Structures are given as C-alpha cells and as structure tokens.
Amino acid sequence: MTPPVLYWISGSPPSWRVMLALTLKGIPFTSKRLDHGAGENKQPAYLALNPKGQVPTLVDGDVVIRESLAVLAWLDRAYLHRPIWGADAGQAAQIWQDVMLMEGDLRPAVTVTAQSLLRGMPLPDAERDALLVGVDALSKTLETQHFLGGGTPMANDIWLYPALHWIARGVVKSGAAPLPIARLTEDRPALAAWMARIAALPGVAETYPPHWR
Ligand SMILES: N[C@@H](CCC(=O)N[C@@H](CS)C(=O)NCC(=O)O)C(=O)O
Q1: C-alpha to C-alpha distance for 18 and 159, rounded to whole angstroms
Q2: Counting atoms of ligand 1 from 1, which one is nearest the CA of 13?
Q3: For the chain, where do the domains classified as CATH 1.20.1050.10 start and end?
Q4: Closest atom of ligand 1 to CA, residue 66
Q5: Cβ atoms 188, 136 nearer than 8 A
Q6: CB 65 within 8 A of CB 74
C-alpha cells in the first residue's frame, strides 16, 4: 500500500496536528514540506490539490483532504488501530466537545496571542484573558489525568500541543511577552508535565517545526 502524502509548512499548527496524529497512530507517510517564503503553496500543482493554497493537505490514494480535523477523522476511520477520537462513544463525544471548544473559544485567542508576539504588536486584553481562562480549565483537567484524552493522547491533546508551542515560539521571538503569557506553562505544573509527557512520546520530537529548532 502506498503511504499517505502530507503537504505541510514548518511552523503551521494545523500541519503539525496532522503530523502528530500520523506519528501517534504509527502510520508511515511521505513528507512534502512546502516553502511558504518561496510561495510553493501557491504554485499551480499544489493549488490543484488545495485551491486555497493552504496546508495541511493529506493525499491518501484517491482521497485528498484539506482540513486538519477532517484529516484526523479520516485517519481514525481508515486506520483503525490506536484510535485518536476515543475508544468508545462516550469518549468520542468528550473529545469532540473539547475540540469544538478549542476551535470556537481558544483558537481565536491562541491565534491573536501568537501572531501579536511574533509581529511585536501589543496583545489585546480580551484575547490574553480568553487564553488564560481556557488554559486554566485545561490545566485543571490535567491535574487528575495524564492526557486530555485520559490515559493516552487523543485528538484534544493533538489540538492543544502545537497551539501552546506556537505561543511559546512567539514568547521566545518577542522577548517581551506579558508575564502571564511568558509563564503560561511554568505557572501551571500540570500543563508543563503534560507538555513534557507528549514531547517524550516516540517520534514526537521529530515533528517539532524544523525552522524553530
Ligand atoms: N482550517 C484549516 C486551517 C489551515 C491554515 O490556516 N493553514 C495556514 C497555515 S497555519 C496556511 O496554509 N497558510 C498559508 C497561506 O495561506 O498562504 C485547517 O485546520 O487545516
């Protein structure tokens, strides 16, 4: 069987999500890294696969998927071993609920925070506060379980891990992040322990965005 092909850009959280899912599920894949600076994601050959010129795109046989969460759904249905959307219906509902809350409430805060830091712009209070509230709730969950998915990382863990690293990258680049953001994980030991636990999983270190190393 031909392995799936992942088109990705270094530092793109949705791309990293898919790479983590492939890694955690142990699915070998062909990596096609695109150079955003050189506009490779806007070249005709790639636009034929993904008309928005965005990443990630996963090509698996005849199937082409252009949304990271849809890729995660595809992988779990096409490769049944090591589920990432839960082992039963109750767990699947819990994971979907977390992911939808992350997409709805946390994503705008994460995006504005990371982009403000990376661009050296002031961080709006509303997004900073939304980020802290969201992260506090997740950290509280992690006080009583190893992963958001319970005993093993699931799609909710896969969503959060690149998001927090994106912010951490912004903190490093800006050098002047507001203290509650600069200390986001340091101030939350359960969250810091969870980050370390995920980082230590087989193959995860290799998924870290190359241009952030
Ligand atoms: N909802 C999409 C978001 C994809 C997205 O925003 N990709 C960005 C990188 S994080 C991208 O491709 N940007 C390049 C561009 O638009 O030129 C998903 O989850 O896959």
Answers
A1: 9
A2: 10
A3: 89-206
A4: 20
A5: yes
A6: yes
149 lines ligand 1 (CB under 6 A): no
23 lines ligand 1 (CB under 6 A): no
Determine whether the shortest distance from the Cβ of 53 to ligand 1 is under 6 A. Answer: yes
Note the pLDDT tens digit of each residue in 25-35.
999 999 999 99
How many Cα atoms occupy the beta-carbon half-sphere of 127 within 13 Å?
A: 17
For 5-78, give the CATH class.
alpha beta
Mind listing the pLDDT tens digit for each residue in 34-58? 999 999 999 999 999 999 999 999 9
Please determine, for residue 1, whether its predicted confidence score (pLDDT) is greater than 90.
Answer: no
C-beta 83 within 6 A of ligand 1: no
Which residues make up the CATH 3.40.30.10 domain(s) of the chain? 5-78
- Looking at domain 89-206, its CATH architecture is Up-down Bundle (1.20)
